[in-house]
Write a structure and sequence with these properties.
Number of strands: 2
Number of helices: 5
CATH class: Mainly Alpha
CATH superfamily: Cobalamin adenosyltransferase-like
Order of helices and strands: EEHHHHH
Oligomer: single chain
Largest sheet: 2 strands, antiparallel
CATH topology: Hypothetical Protein Ta1238, Chain: A
Number of domains: 1
């Protein structure tokens, strides 16, 4: 199988389960943003503390499943869809896992008193970048949900994941002995 097919040269792409849409279709925007997010999670994996690695690897697998669900033509019959790509994406257990990760990280952190500027360690910066890309992926999925149903657990997962990335960024900095860089109004 070749990597290039030339089928997308005219600005359209295939959906899993059949059908073609424009490359700027809301569905393509949504699963593309989830794919981009997964790449940023991969960057965070490069430098994160060892005990976060299993959770991040699970996040990557879940994001791939969410992307596959978003890339699947909603009108395709289940028999036409690839069994490897079928499914709804995130489960409620996946959402609960992120909530547990947030609670565990928060237990190690000083209470949040102000807005925090992104930065600190390389891993913290990567988590902050992943957080902002996650917010974009969530916005794209919400936009798609206005016209075609997106599994509610996928929306909840993306919402929790951005919060998880935020607390993991703070955790990376705290474990490195760096205080949060709090935002203060200029000239004030």
């Amino acid at each position: 199988m070749k990597v290039y097919t030339k089928r997308g040269d005219g600005g359209e792409t295939d959906l899993a389960g059949g059908g073609r849409v424009a490359k700027d279709d809301l569905r393509v925007e949504a699963y593309g943003a989830v794919d981009e997010l997964n790449s940023f999670v991969g960057l965070a994996l490069l430098d994160c503390v060892e005990d976060l690695r299993p959770a991040l690897e699970a996040v990557q697998r879940t994001l791939f499943e969410i992307g596959a669900a978003l890339a699947t033509n909603p009108e395709a019959s289940s028999s036409a869809s690839s069994p490897a790509l079928s499914g709804a994406g995130a489960s409620e257990a996946d959402v609960a896992s992120l909530e547990a990760a947030i609670d565990a990280a928060d237990a190690e952190l000083a209470p949040l008193r102000a807005f925090v500027l992104p930065g600190g360690t390389r891993a913290a910066a990567a988590f902050h970048a992943a957080r902002t890309v996650c917010r974009r992926a969530e916005r794209r999925a919400v936009a798609l949900n206005r016209s075609e149903e997106v599994e509610a657990s996928n929306l909840r997962y993306l919402n929790r994941l951005s919060d998880t990335c935020f607390v993991w960024a703070r955790l990376e900095n705290a474990r490195a002995g760096l205080a949060d860089i709090e935002w203060t109004r200029r000239g004030g």
